Amino acid sequence: MYKRYLTSQLYTMAQPVLAACGLQNEHLPRLTLLKQDSGVDGSFLIAAILGHRLKASKDHHVLLIATHHTYHHYSSACMKVGFNLGPARDSGQLQILDVAAELFHNYPNCFPSLDDIAHRVGTFLKTHPGRTILVDDLTYFLNFDHSEAQLIDFVEQFAATEDRHHSLVIKLNTADLWATLCANLDDMAQVEIGLQRLASGQFREVDGRLVVSRYPAEEDGEQDLIKVKKVDKSVLYKVNERNIKVFVPGEVGIKNL
């Protein structure tokens, strides 16, 4: 009974933001980009996706590649939306590459290597049939002498495969400094979710804006020579202590931001 209560709690607390982003489905697109503006922390969305994917099925395995935050950060964030990562981690359903923790323990003898990460991701994909890979955040590796081209190649080797049994969710910072990286990953992604600051400033009612872009569904007999993503949804969000709320701009109680 208590386990069932926690499950319903998770869906109640995180479901609005997952539904707004189209991430509540059983199968996610091959590559989803979470693009956060500088000064915006999108880890709440990673936590919501993480809890939802683990709850979807016990046979579904998740690999979390954590850089800026450690496992304990995500564990605490998931607890706030009603999900305990402990059992999933203990059973092996959740595997974590805690890059920041490994850097702390191995410094200065060893630095994060994309080749090593790619090898470990490949091993994970071979071992588990149904899987989701979460990367938070990819631009972290640019701090350790990795080029944008190396990051693009890293994503491409897992996003371009014909294997339909895994999904890749990558969060990255959209600073102008990394425009080439963002543009190339945009071309590979089926869905882009922008986590944006409000152009009009900061407000107590909301923390920012979520802008979801995806390829429009093809109508029967129609095929576009060039596919262009279109904005599917734009909502405001507020991360509270125990839930994540979304609002339509202009609705009652919310300014027309």
TrEMBL record:
This protein's pathway: tRNA modification; 5-methoxycarbonylmethyl-2-thiouridine-tRNA biosynthesis
Alphabetized InterPro entries for the sequence: ELP6, P-loop_NTPase
Any GO BP annotation: tRNA wobble uridine modification
Pfam family, one: ELP6
GO cellular component: elongator holoenzyme complex
Family stated for the protein in its record: Belongs to the ELP6 family.
Name this protein carries in UniProt: Elongator complex protein 6
